[in-house]
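Sample entry was shown:
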Amino acid sequence: MRLFRQHGYDSVSIAQIAAEAGVSRMTFFRHFSSKESVLVEDLFDPAIAVAIAAQPSSAHPLARVVRGLVAALSEPEAARELSSGGFRDRIQLVAATPSLRGAVWASSANTERAIREALTSSGTPEEQARAAAGAAMGAATTILLNWASGPGTVGAAEALTTGLTSLVGPS
């Protein structure tokens, strides 16, 4: 993050990142698929899919997605990541760097796909699953970008929980 803040994301090369970390470019690529993935890769898609699949299939698809996302936020690994200072720094950098928008879209598309598959595997029609996944991910992205640019009076998990729950109301 220091390199990105000091020189700007677009000016920092993978070679510089690897040198700063004391590793080779090959080692960098063992851990990250691209420079963008250092900032936007979402490792929680499997946990999100499991949490959504665990919601009652009789519930409305959007309610299942929101409640599943909120449940996934409370998992220990997600809670640690969302409460870290590095998380806020990454979201702020992403929000301020137009060249990262494509990577954010791709990461969101992967999460939407995991959500859609969790819904359709329990009988939700494809179009309803697509709409629920897209609505929830659009809301989550907007909430996180606004949170990162705000005063930081609440944590990311609380901002996401409050914002997403407003889509469907409390359980």
Remarks:
- The mean pLDDT is 90.
- The chain has eleven helices and no strands.
